[in-house]
UniProtKB/TrEMBL annotation:
InterPro entries: NUDIX_hydrolase-like_dom_sf, NUDIX_hydrolase_dom, NUDT19. Its cofactor is Mg(2+); Mn(2+). CDD domains: NUDIX_AcylCoAdiphos_Nudt19 (cd18870). It comes from the Eukaryota. Keywords: Hydrolase, Magnesium, Manganese, Metal-binding. The gene is 106083370. This is Nudix hydrolase domain-containing protein. One of its GO terms (molecular function) is hydrolase activity, acting on acid anhydrides, in phosphorus-containing anhydrides. One of its GO terms (cellular component) is mitochondrion. It comes from Stomoxys calcitrans. The keyword Cytoplasm does not apply. The keyword Manganese applies. Residues 10-244 form the Nudix hydrolase domain. Belongs to the Nudix hydrolase family.
């Protein structure tokens, strides 16, 4: 590859949002629910699967210098925005977190996530001028007192309309409540490839959603453990990324602890993760890079990026005990 632009033609930059809403009724011991959106069969990514809301970064809309001008009108200047930026950290995933034109990717990808959440499920995470002046507590604010259907359709047809929506309502996207959680790259064998950053957002209550009918068929508010149980019983389908992240979340029962942990860990950035697939006799196993795993299975150079799936001549029961377990 000669440039970041060339690489991003293959691995399209995208942003996904994990929405954790507090719930007074506990489920499997959890006092919160995670939003999963069931994709319609017409969507390009994961049709008929349950996923976190999100979508592709639009450079024209999300990296527009007019966002910086609009933030300044709110009294939000470069120094304020830089508090969200982690460009000073070594080894930020490239090119996803380093390729920018006008706006830092730590800002523009948050704009992508907020825009996509509104476009897909009608959830507008934003702050009024008065709300911005208050101390942020790590919880997002959503706004519903406007013609959501009209504006959702406009933003769906033209991502640039999201900036116009914010101007119309005199609000700014609540990018301060989006906490960086993880970064993933699609496996080399995937037909559609993405570099995806995941953010966590904490809501104090479940909002009323407005599903975009061409993209989202159903909403599901569910605890991490119950989602994993339904997937195991084949009642719902989860892509590997969703399965892995729900497994991580299953370790945290408390909404407030999840909110505080997500806010704290976001300052440390993320390591780029990518699954390597091993086709066994009776299944397909996805693994994360692990020298220990490679040595035990005697598969040479398995960490080298390849467009082919690696074949492991055994059953998954033999492969599984040799994997490392990854948790929060």
């Amino acid at each position: 590859m000669n440039s970041y632009e060339d690489l991003e033609k293959i691995y399209r930059p995208s942003a996904t949002i994990i929405i954790a809403a507090k719930d007074p009724v506990k489920e499997y011991g959890y006092d919160y629910r995670i939003l999963l959106a069931k994709r319609t069969m017409r969507t390009a990514y994961a049709p008929d699967h349950f996923v976190f809301p999100g979508g592709v970064h639009d450079a024209n809309a999300d990296d527009d210098i007019k966002w910086l001008e609009y933030f300044e009108e709110f009294g939000i200047y470069a120094d304020d925005l830089n508090k969200l930026c982690l460009e000073h950290l070594p080894n930020r995933p490239q090119p996803l977190m380093t390729n920018k034109t006008h706006v830092s990717r730590d800002i523009s990808l948050r704009l992508t996530a907020v825009r996509e959440a509104f476009e897909e499920v009608g959830l507008l995470l934003c702050l009024s001028r008065e709300q911005y002046r208050r101390e942020h507590k790590g919880c997002a604010t959503n706004y519903q007192k406007f013609n959501r259907f009209h504006w959702q359709e406009k933003v769906h047809n033209d991502p640039y309309e999201f900036l116009n929506l914010c101007k119309f309502l005199d609000v700014v996207p609540d990018i301060w409540s989006l906490h960086e959680w993880s970064i993933w790259r699609s496996p080399p064998a995937s037909l559609k490839k993405y570099d995806t950053i995941l953010y966590i957002v904490a809501l104090e209550q479940k909002p009323q959603l407005l599903l975009e009918p061409t993209e989202v068929e159903e909403e599901l508010w569910i605890s991490p453990k119950r989602a994993l149980h339904l997937f195991k019983e084949r009642h719902i389908w989860l892509p590997p990324l969703q399965f892995y992240e729900l497994s991580r979340l299953s370790n945290i029962l408390s909404w407030s602890k999840l909110r505080d942990f997500a806010k704290h860990r976001a300052a440390f950035g993320s390591t780029l993760l990518m699954l390597a697939y091993y086709r066994c006799y009776d299944s397909l196993v996805g693994t994360l890079p692990s020298t220990y795993f490679i040595m035990m299975t005697s598969i040479p150079k398995a960490q080298k990026i390849t467009k082919k799936q690696l074949f492991y001549q055994n059953h998954y029961q033999v492969l599984n005990p040799k994997q490392k377990i990854f948790t929060v």
